[in-house]
Amino acid sequence: MPATPPPAPRVDGRTARSERTRAAIVEAHVQLLREGDLRPTADRIAKRAGVSLRALWSHFADMEALFAASGQLTLDQRDDLHEPIPPDLPLDRRIELYCHQRARQLEQIAPVAKASSIKEPFSPALQSYRRIHLQRVRTELSTVFAREINGDEDLLNALTAAAMWPTWGTLRDAMDLDPAGARAALARMLRALLPH
Asked: What is this structure's pTM?
């Protein structure tokens, strides 16, 4: 006689609701940032999420905790856009693919990055996520352009500076370039830096 399979684990309804509420609050915060509300209040976040202010504070001890959760969501969404670029392709092709992908990522995180820059000096959570983003960019550059970098830390530093949000923000906002123009400038910087 075949063994009876074990019963499926029961999902606690309250736990599932709590997780949905928490996710809705984080998503509402990120949506408000993307819409240009660079300093959304807890009240506006709660209203957008469709929850009470009390519910927001029962899920997050303070705004710093919400920043941390929103930073993780932004990081996850950035990772969803990432596709590995084969490091054995010709250099010009790698630069082209890298710049297209990096431009998409930077455009996606732009509103969140702008909002973060306002609060980052006072927020350990935002400082931590900036360091994580920085390390991911360095790791990707080290992989995609491994032959050209060849252990040259100064070159890696220069490439990282070119590919990070502050440079993109300067191209897009201060210089008023459209995404294609900013991407072309990024590609020009990488071609100038990388040895052919």
From this structure: 0.79
